[in-house]
Design brief:
Layout lengths: L2 H20 L48 H6 L13 E4 L7 E4 L4 H14 L31 H14 L6 E5 L2 E5 L1 H7 L1 H7 L10 E3 L5 H13 L9 H11 L2 H13 L6 H11 L2 H13 L1 H4 L3 H4 L3 H8 L9 H14 L1 H4 L3 H5 L9 H8 L2 H4 L2 H15 L21 E7 L6 E8 L4 E7 L8 E5 L2 E5 L11 E5 L4 E5 L10 E4 L4 E7 L4 E9 L4 E5 L10 E5 L2 E5 L11 E5 L4 E5 L10 E5 L2 E5 L17 E5 L4 E5 L10 E5 L2 E5 L11 E5 L4 E5 L10 E5 L2
Parallel strand pairs: 3-5
Antiparallel strand pairs: 1-2, 3-4, 6-7, 6-29, 7-8, 9-10, 10-11, 11-12, 13-14, 14-15, 15-16, 17-18, 18-19, 19-20, 21-22, 22-23, 23-24, 25-26, 26-27, 27-28
Helix pairs in contact: 5-6, 7-8, 8-9, 9-11, 10-11, 18-20
Keywords: Actin-binding, Cytoplasm, Cytoskeleton, Kelch repeat, Repeat
InterPro entries: BACK (IPR011705), Beta-prop_ATRN-MKLN-like (IPR056737), BTB-kelch_protein (IPR017096), BTB/POZ_dom (IPR000210), Kelch-typ_b-propeller (IPR015915), Kelch_1 (IPR006652), KLHL5_BTB/POZ (IPR030606), SKP1/BTB/POZ_sf (IPR011333)
Subcellular location: Cytoplasm, Cytoskeleton
């Protein structure tokens, strides 16, 4: 075999290899076969004579080569025709020895195969211009997967180029006109960033065909800054441009810019500007920013009303503020004084709005003396509508027995004025919680605030002078008579004089100043004795005893009397009730409940006494006798009435009044120490789930403190 033919063979192999690596093997296209004669033959696959020929179905290279008469013949001869199929040459690939590739004439396949193999083995198979040897079929291994090229920073480089075109005003196809400023730009870039421009340029509207687009009501510098942002993705936010940027970004529907501007304004909130940001967010439809600004205003309302922004608000905005339940204020008098300050800032213009705005003040919740002063105030004296509102509030105070019928939005306390709910201690999964949590109605959230100095179970808690008094209980080994006082403002504990008697399972309540510790168990026997704490003398004294010993008793104050409800007497749970009159120092039996209850929660609302949950079985069979039922006692008729039951049974449930709703906190359902909390609305007779405790607990003492 000549050197020229050897060189020709290698070139053909390299061509075939390149074709195979660049294109997936497939059958030749007859329509263009005459132009692909270098790689394809119209002849059939040949497998005779024991020689393996390439086949598109089972070999990497599906190709049949030309005659190897000479290189000149190859170059000069036109694409076949052939006289007969016997003249069709074949390209052989030997899989066994991988010795190389050869051209064979069909008539001499068997004789030439051995000779060509030897010649191929002795040859270096080099190209005329390369020293690399095609030594084996490994150089022609098939590609096992597609390869893709990913340019680094392609998008960044492309936009840098586009920015350069913008800077030099090259290839621009639209001009944005804002005021006296003309801003050339590229439709493609604007549309890719802004949904506003995308809708404008990709739909059949007039602006899509205009070379100049007038941007009405858009600040020119803000528009230019946002056009630059479309090319660079960068934007400088400053206090002096943030409002223009946000309003323009809202128009152009640049959601990322809107979000960034809103976050910037959230960080700038202050009592001096929160009202303006709140109004601006409302006008722009930025709901998240409006919500944050509104909450900030409500939380810091006492500081907000001292700033100029409040005095400059229109009457419509003042009405929105006064209607809110969420403002953080100590009492309703604060709101009334803020309204009067606003009216006096421009008395001539604002006097006409006074009666409309006064209707948003919860006048029935003001002190009677405060209402009397209002009646004689010159601002209200000559206004008939204001006088009607003042008389309505006075009637609420003069006719307390009619208050259930006088309920209205003006008799509903604002959330911050009702105080904070505290849940103290109780039994948990660790057999004794020392933690204290508080619940705020405005935030609907429980937060850990403190820990008791030691573990207490079946103790009592009362509020005296806005301080929590933790009384008696047991520590797991012995029954206690100790008393501790927690100040929620200073977050400090102090030790108080102990009771005369060790008690756990007692009830504690404050009546007309003194605090009472009722019943319980001293570790040996059930108690009917009652002690009273005199805060002036700082000592405990006994008062009249109950008619029945009671432990795990529920106590509450109603109409100047102390009520002891249910409990256990050592043999069974009780359904009897008795009340103590401090003026006569006597206990009197009342109507019995319909069910026996130990571990019952008791509270009062609007002249009624409520008994909630508990159990009515011996200790050996608590699970099957837990109670979810609720009864209401009317002292005028001496009758108990069933009302809506809780969603689940709760033994040792903590119960307290917060605002105009009753709260059932935690408890035990027979298997779990509950962290769930539900509130009862006496006006609708419905229970509603509220935020859960941080820790599941039963027997927690729950009280309300005004901070």
């Amino acid at each position: 075999m000549s050197g020229s033919r050897k060189e020709f063979d290698v070139k053909q192999i390299l061509k075939i290899r390149w074709r195979w690596f660049g294109h997936q093997a497939s059958a030749p296209n007859p329509a263009i076969e005459s132009h692909q004669g270098d790689f394809w033959s119209r002849g059939p696959n040949v497998t005779t004579g024991g020689t393996k020929f390439l086949d598109a179905g089972n070999l990497p290279l599906a190709a049949v080569g030309y005659r190897r008469s000479s290189q000149q013949d190859f170059q000069n001869s036109p694409p076949w025709p052939m006289a007969s199929t016997s003249e069709i040459p074949a390209f052989e690939f030997s899989a066994e020895d991988c010795g190389g590739a050869r051209w064979l004439d069909r008539q001499e396949t068997d004789d030439r195969a051995s000779e060509e193999e030897n010649e191929s083995d002795s040859s270096s198979c080099r190209t005329s211009n390369s020293s690399h040897t095609l030594s084996s079929c490994q150089t022609m291994e098939p590609c096992t997967s597609d390869e893709f090229f990913q340019a680094l920073n392609h998008a960044e480089q492309t936009f840098k180029k586009m920015e350069n075109y913008l800077r030099h005003k090259q290839l621009c196809d639209v001009v944005l006109v804002a005021g006296d400023r003309r801003i050339p730009a590229h439709r493609l870039v604007l549309s890719s960033v802004s949904d506003y421009f995308a809708a404008m340029f990709t739909n059949d509207v007039r602006e899509a065909r205009q070379e100049e687009i007038k941007m009405e009501g858009v600040e020119p510098n803000a528009l230019w800054a946002l056009v630059q942002y479309a090319y660079t993705g960068r934007l400088e936010l400053k206090e002096d441009n943030i409002e223009c940027l946000l309003s323009t970004a809202c128009l152009l529907q640049l959601s990322q810019v809107v979000e960034a501007c809103c976050k910037f304004l959230m960080k700038q909130l202050h009592p001096s500007n929160c009202l303006g940001i709140r109004s601006f967010a409302d006008a722009q439809g930025c709901t998240d920013l409006h919500k944050v600004a509104h909450n900030y205003t409500m939380e810091n309302f006492m500081e907000v009303i001292r700033n100029q922004e409040f005095l400059l608000l229109p009457a419509t905005e003042i009405a929105k503020l006064l209607a809110s339940d969420d403002m953080n204020i100590p009492n309703e008098e604060t709101i009334l004084n803020a309204l009067l300050t606003w009216v006096r800032h421009d008395l001539d213009q604002r006097r006409k709005d006074l009666s409309k705005l006064l209707a948003y003040i919860r006048l029935p919740l003001l002190a009677p003396q405060f209402l009397a002063d209002m009646e004689n105030n010159a601002l209200f004296r000559d206004d008939i509508e204001c006088q009607k509102l003042i008389m309505e509030a006075m009637k609420y105070h003069l006719l307390p027995e009619r208050r259930p019928m006088l309920q209205s939005p003006r008799t509903k306390p604002r959330k911050s004025t009702v105080g904070v709910l505290f849940a103290v201690g109780g039994m948990d999964a660790t057999k004794g919680a020392t933690s204290i949590e508080k619940y705020e109605l405005r935030t609907n959230m429980w937060t850990p605030v403190a820990n008791m100095n030691g573990r207490r179970l079946q103790f009592g808690v009362a509020v005296l002078d806005d301080k929590l008094y933790v009384v008696g209980g047991r520590d797991g080994l012995k029954t206690l008579n100790t008393v501790e006082c927690y100040n929620p403002r200073t977050k400090t504990w102090s030790v108080m004089p102990p009771m005369s008697t060790h008690r756990h399972g007692l009830g504690v309540a404050v009546l007309e100043g003194p605090m009472y510790a009722v019943g319980g168990h001293d570790g040996w026997s059930y108690l009917n004795t009652v002690e009273r704490w005199d805060p002036q003398a700082r000592q405990w004294n006994f008062v009249a005893s109950m008619s029945t010993p009671r432990s795990t008793v529920g106590v509450a104050i109603l109409n100047g009397k102390l009520y002891a409800v249910g409990g256990r007497d050592g043999s069974s749970c009780l359904k009897s009730v008795e009340c103590f009159d401090p003026h006569t120092n006597k206990w009197t039996l009342c109507a019995q409940m319909s069910k026996r209850r130990g571990g019952v929660g008791v509270t009062t609302w609007n002249g009624f006494l409520y008994a909630i949950g508990g159990h009515d079985a011996p200790a050996s069979n608590l699970t099957s006798r837990l109670s979810d039922c609720v009864e209401r006692y009317d002292p005028k008729t001496d009758v108990w009435t069933a009302v809506a039951s809780m969603s689940i049974s709760r033994d040792a449930v903590g119960v307290c009044l917060l605002g105009d709703k009753l709260y059932a906190v935690g408890g035990y359902d027979g298997q779990t120490y509950l962290n769930t909390v539900e509130s009862y609305d006496p006006q609708t007779n419905e229970w509603t789930q509220v935020a859960p405790l941080c820790l599941g607990r039963a027997g927690a003492c729950v009280v309300t403190v005004k901070l």
